[in-house]
Design goal:
The protein is mainly beta. It has one domain. About 0% of the residues lie in helices and about 60% in strands. It contains no helices and eight strands. Strands 1, 2, 3, 4, 5, 6, 7 and 8 form an eight-stranded antiparallel β-sheet that branches. Strand 2 and strand 3 form a beta hairpin. It starts with a strand and ends in a 15-residue tail after the last strand.
Length: about 160
């Protein structure tokens, strides 16, 4: 069980805007205690300090929308220095949408997560093999077409 003790998040409130483009960096520091680092019956706990950085970027125009993110976490373990790493968690991704016409839109997303804590990726059961490097990637592309329904005009009746 992980108990969060201290959480500080500093976000850049003033994003940089230029012609539909924005960038928003953020930085956070948190400290937590994990009472079972290796997910074993003989539990070993430790105090973990996590430093997080993230940047979000977006571009928006009349026909095109694009957003991307990149986040990197570094962990420092007080009693287990061999577990300290500068890349404890990496999260990157983007989403794009293009309106080709009023009725036709193309879109795509991609995401990649790499972590030292595989339970973050196994959301259904949270079962893990222990502390190990694990990653997950996904990509999706699609299109959507909007149909308009027009009422049928009555056919003129023919008289003979």
């Amino acid at each position: 069980m992980i108990v969060a003790l201290v959480g500080i998040l500093v976000a850049a409130s003033a994003a940089v805007y230029a012609q539909g483009f924005s960038v928003a960096p953020s930085f956070g520091i948190s400290e937590m205690y994990d009472d079972n680092l290796f997910y074993r019956p003989a539990a070993a706990g430790d105090m973990i300090t996590r430093v997080s950085s993230r940047v979000d970027a977006a571009f928006l125009s009349e026909l095109h929308a694009f957003s991307a993110r990149y986040a990197l976490d570094a962990d420092r373990f007080a009693d287990h220095p061999d577990l300290t790493t500068m890349q404890a968690r990496l999260d990157a991704g983007f989403e794009e949408q293009y309106h080709a016409t009023r009725r036709l839109t193309f879109n795509g997303t991609a995401a990649f997560i790499e972590t030292e804590t595989p339970s973050e990726l196994n959301l259904a059961s949270a079962l893990t093999p222990g502390r190990a490097r694990a990653c997950r990637g996904r990509a999706r592309a699609g299109r959507s077409a909007r149909r308009t329904c027009r009422p049928r005009s009555p056919t003129p009746s023919r008289r003979a």
